[in-house]
């Protein structure tokens, strides 16, 4: 729900973290696709990357702003070469990575890869610990635009290091700094988007903007309703940390998951959009249903996500509304936009009819009449309140 009328947006006090990677990248939540949810290791190939780029064009996704084709874990061979370089798996990248980035760039799109702050990636491929500078040099030489950086096999008091360390030595911050510095060092040749994937450890939202452009604030979205509830509900409390240049990353969109029905998919997409999460499709575009396609092509919601103000919506409690329940999606959300306010009315627990008086909405707060537009149906209206259909 989007109300269209000039409102006082600047009244909201939002802390700003100075961005160390202030390189003009990530001023809006990034939009694109990632291979991981599609077929995990099997999708980390040139074939998937190029087929997805073609789909971005043929399905009209590129024109809507979907831009990054991101290959996740398992794209390299299991060991580095004798010079210590990462080696794209020849079975998955028969012509190397550069041939793929060149083609993707020629289509007006961008290309991303995945690495890890530990000595191995989560799936056991070479990590970048101790190789930060040379790995960034390789990414730059291939023309890579985006680097997701995970935190498996990181320094740990357990020996040997487990995939997921439960008694870490040091904080995630210290493991992410060398890569941030390597990216900064290469800045004159290529501006990379640095995506921190530390699953919300060490309250990454409080420092993420001084390290990268976006940061995962939770463990994975497993494609079920419990994940949408867990991640979506916890976005409310950290909304103030999202700003142009640094955004909470709620993880890939798991639309197309057999575990979500169409209403749950709508809520999933809408909530990620209004909380200014990156919109990264985690699905096989060859198999997408018409109903999912309609949701991911919702231009109104995409415009809200990409609005230049870049401030995330959070929950508000209208008079008489129940208290929020931890881990459940609260029905009432609002956030500032450059031309109004976005209001999210979420039937998070059960279907229902929700009403809101605009005077109770942060950023509106008076009894004037407002124009509104419902973003899924396109229905418009005006008045001092709105009720969902
Ligand atoms: C996880 C990460 C996932 C995916 C996977 C690859 O740690 O949260 O998004 O990247 O590793 O192994």
Automatic annotation (TrEMBL):
* Signal peptide boundaries: 1-20
> Quick one: a GO biological-process term for this protein?
carbohydrate metabolic process
Protein family per UniProt = Belongs to the glycosyl hydrolase 27 family.
* Coiled-coil regions listed in the entry: none
Q: Which GO terms describe its molecular function?
A: alpha-galactosidase activity
Q: What does this protein do?
A: Hydrolyzes a variety of simple alpha-D-galactoside as well as more complex molecules such as oligosaccharides and polysaccharides.
Q: Which reaction does it catalyse?
A: Hydrolysis of terminal, non-reducing alpha-D-galactose residues in alpha-D-galactosides, including galactose oligosaccharides, galactomannans and galactolipids
Question: What is one Pfam family matched by this protein?
Answer: Melibiase_2
Q: What is its EC number?
A: 3.2.1.22
Task: List, alphabetically, the Gene3D superfamilies matched.
Answer: Aldolase class I (3.20.20.70)
Q: What is this protein called?
A: Alpha-galactosidase
Residue span, Alpha galactosidase C-terminal domain: 331-385
Superkingdom of this protein's organism: Eukaryota
The alphabetical list of record keywords is: Disulfide bond, Glycosidase, Hydrolase, Signal
């Amino acid at each position: 729900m989007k109300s269209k009328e000039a409102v006082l947006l600047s009244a909201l006090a939002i802390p700003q973290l100075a961005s160390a990677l202030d390189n003009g990248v990530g001023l809006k939540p990034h939009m694109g696709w990632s291979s991981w949810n599609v077929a995990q290791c099997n999708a980390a190939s040139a074939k998937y990357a190029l087929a997805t780029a073609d789909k971005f064009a043929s399905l009209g996704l590129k024109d809507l702003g979907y831009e990054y084709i991101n290959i996740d874990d398992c794209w390299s061979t299991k060991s580095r070469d004798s010079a210590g370089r990462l080696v794209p798996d020849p079975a998955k990248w028969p012509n190397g990575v550069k041939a793929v980035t060149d083609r993707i760039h020629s289509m007006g799109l961008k290309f991303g890869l995945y690495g890890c702050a530990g000595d191995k990636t989560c799936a056991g491929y070479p990590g970048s610990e101790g190789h930060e500078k040379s790995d960034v040099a390789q990414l730059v030489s291939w023309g890579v635009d985006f680097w997701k950086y995970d935190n498996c096999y990181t320094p740990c008091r357990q020996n040997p290091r487990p995939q997921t360390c439960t008694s870490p030595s040091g904080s995630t911050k210290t493991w992410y700094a060398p890569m941030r510095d390597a990216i900064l060092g290469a800045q004159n040749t290529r501006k990379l988007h640095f995506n921190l994937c530390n699953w919300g450890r060490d309250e990454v939202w409080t420092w993420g903007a001084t390290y990268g452009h976006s940061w995962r604030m939770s463990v994975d979205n497993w494609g079920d309703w419990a994940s949408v509830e867990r991640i979506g509900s916890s976005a409310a409390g950290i909304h103030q940390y999202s700003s142009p240049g640094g955004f909470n990353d709620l993880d890939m969109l798991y639309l197309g998951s057999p575990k979500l029905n169409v209403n749950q998919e709508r809520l999933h997409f809408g909530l990620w959009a209004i909380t200014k999460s990156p919109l990264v499709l985690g699905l096989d575009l060859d198999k997408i249903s018409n109903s999912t396609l309609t949701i991911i092509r919702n231009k109104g919601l995409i415009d809200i996500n990409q609005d230049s103000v870049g401030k995330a919506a959070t929950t508000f409690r209208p008079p008489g509304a129940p208290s929020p329940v931890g881990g459940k999606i609260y029905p009432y959300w609002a956030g500032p936009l450059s031309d109004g306010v976005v209001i999210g009315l979420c039937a998070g627990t059960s279907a229902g009819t929700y009403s809101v008086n605009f005077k109770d909405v942060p950023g509106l707060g008076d009894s004037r009449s407002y124009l509104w537009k419902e973003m899924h149906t396109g229905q418009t209206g005006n008045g001092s309140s709105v009720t969902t259909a």
